[in-house]
Amino acid sequence: MRGSPASSAIPRSGERPASGPLTPELAKGPGFDLVVLLDPEAFGEGIDGAVDRYVAIIRATQQLIILTSS
């Protein structure tokens, strides 16, 4: 969702809120201006983990922040 901060805080009918945690599965499809990934290595191993990381990373349209615990 784009717009003023006040308008983006209230989701329109049928839309998800613009903020809050989402799993890679829930984030498929829409793009977000800002994406913050927390420990992307914890998304899993092998092909499934790589696909989840890829999906999460490509959701960012403006900024991508990756935070790791190590």
From TrEMBL:
Region (Disordered): 1-25
Protein name, per record: UvrD-like helicase C-terminal domain-containing protein
Taxon lineage: Bacteria, Bacillati, Actinomycetota, Actinomycetes, Geodermatophilales
